[in-house]
């Protein structure tokens, strides 16, 4: 087991002391009701948000459960990346691999192969990738220009269409047209951190005589943590990378000047986001690139982390938005985007016929996929009266997608336009497949470019929606329905209904029934290779969700409580199979409080608590003896009726209890201390994980993150210490998480893993970051 019970107990004790001291002060402050009501906490029930229905409306009336992170809170906590911010929201489980996807997050308890069931948007523009539907939560997003981040929890298909399956993260930037007067503003930020990490982040915006603009950009690079910076895990061991029995002639090569056999996993990332506007016409760009090694994701006897795996996105758009004096609004949107996913990979596949599988078939290969689309949307908006609002719209999108990964220098079953089918290499397994006892192997990399026409498929998406909302004194009712048609998987109609009721000025109640569907990702439909089959017959996933929400505010107290029950069908697993049903039940409770600073003559103290409870039930099980999924809805059930038993088991990798606690304590007019605690309870591992069959659970843990900030009018300095108490932490493995934990064999030699993906992911211990920000 991977428990650190004593350490966690000590951390919890520290946490409880903090909570007791702060809330003891809060209770004392409550004795003076007049003092509470003099506090300056914004009236959060009246806060304007846009992600609930794609238009600005008060938080208390928006038909959704929404969390808001403001630019002031970003500054207080010292966030510089999206994954940092997500870790402090409620309702998310994270797995950090320090690889091609730095952090993968699962919203509302729904474990997926990658972050591909939550839409990530910049100012309402979807940035999830066309081919995988994923969004890599790396460090490519500039944070200097963010106005706020809105997180919508729950399915939102009737509002945002396909793939708004678990929720939405909408990153809303500052814009020049929102400036009160003509002028120009520049914010620059330099970042320096552990592991030779450095970044530059800047935002410039302005307005002049009706013309406005904004530009945010970031560059970031890091050597990444070394193995000694992490918790211990047997298959994350450099001895595996350099073992000649496993790797043979691969060790004759190097990448980026570093020989294979040494642990290296570097990152180079950048992003550019910009828009120029005049009147109601805007033109913009969302461009980002992530380039990373593989970090901890793969076991070291099968994959060398020293590589570059790249994801590139180029998105260009035109938008015209106009509201007539009659209250009728029209918005036209045109978008063109291209993306590429490419990189190299050094692999050692155990030869099961060799003694203890000690020898391998080895390859060094190039991978590539190229995808593009253009989309046109027309939206209409009409404020019929003070109480009735109507909206409708249509969408058309044409996509050109890679079918299979183009992989050259690999197994014969992979597609490569540069190799003849008859080129089967020395062992008849593929042109690039050699054996670990070979003294040499020829390698040719860097030849992949444009995608061959024979490996492309073109699809068409059409959609239409209608929404209506009625607001009356004390209550509101809203409904939406959306029709979507895809040339591959057919037609879906998804409704949404929500009602809100103001019991009084302090209490608002909501009930929401929402539905959505998730398209099968093209990478799973077509993008197979020898290690994973494609499945062009995948059905879209579907969800029905019922949510109850209670929002309460009294003076400086704000409480947001929600309970939900979601039923999923046609679940798509990492093996590209529809796998029956899942049920997810959960509770999220968020509390915010501000109080006078009794200890220091400074600004007010702010605090928050986020609690999540999640229960995830799978209706299928993984039989580790048979090596297959069984149960109602599984592929095995369709082939053999004796394997159709209906199971109800915890899915795994989702912590039942998660707790986030944070305090921001100004100590002078310029200095402040921000402390955040993240507690994650022990949890079952994924049903597919071999450690699950052994009865092993992942231990609970507590991390403490500290941010010391000095701020003046135009300059600020942040010193961040993450994982302050150097806790030894493990996250859940990704994909099938199938490596197992047999690190050594009976004769004392290194053992081979059961699969490519590490069953658990060791995490970095204490680390630091310094951030300097200047505004002009």
Number of domains: 1
Mean pLDDT: 90
Main sheet makeup: 22 strands, antiparallel, barrel
The structural class is mainly beta
Shape: globular
CATH topology: Maltoporin, Chain A
Compact overview of the structure:
The protein is mainly β and 776 residues long.
Task: Describe, in plain words, how this protein is organized in 3D.
- The chain has 776 residues and is mostly beta strands.
- It has a single domain (5-775), classed as Maltoporin, Chain A, CATH 2.40.170.20.
- It is built from ten helices and 42 strands.
- The strands form eight sheets. It has a 22-stranded antiparallel barrel.
- A hairpin with a 3-residue loop joins strand 24 and strand 25.
What would the keywords be for this entry?
mainly beta; 5-stranded mixed beta sheet; 9% helix; Maltoporin, Chain A; globular; disordered N terminus; 776 residues
Question: What does the secondary structure layout of this molecule look like, with pairings?
Answer:
Blueprint: H1 5-30, H2 33-37, E1 48-49, E2 57-58, E3 65-70, H3 71-77, H4 82-86, E4 92-96, E5 103-107, E6 118-122, E7 125-126, E8 146-153, H5 157-160, E9 167-173, E10 183-193, E11 197-208, E12 211-222, H6 238-241, H7 244-247, E13 254-255, E14 258-259, E15 267-278, E16 281-292, E17 309-323, E18 328-350, E19 360-383, E20 388-402, E21 406-408, E22 434-435, E23 456-472, E24 475-486, E25 490-502, E26 507-518, H8 522-525, E27 541-554, E28 557-569, E29 582-595, E30 605-618, E31 621-623, E32 628-630, H9 635-639, E33 649-650, E34 657-666, E35 671-680, E36 683-684, H10 690-693, E37 697-698, E38 701-711, E39 715-722, E40 730-732, E41 760-762, E42 767-775
Parallel strand pairs: 6-9
Antiparallel strand pairs: 1-2, 3-8, 4-5, 6-7, 8-9, 10-11, 10-42, 11-12, 12-15, 13-14, 15-16, 16-17, 17-18, 18-19, 19-20, 19-21, 19-22, 20-23, 23-24, 24-25, 25-26, 26-27, 27-28, 28-29, 29-30, 30-33, 30-34, 31-32, 34-35, 35-38, 36-37, 38-39, 39-42, 40-41
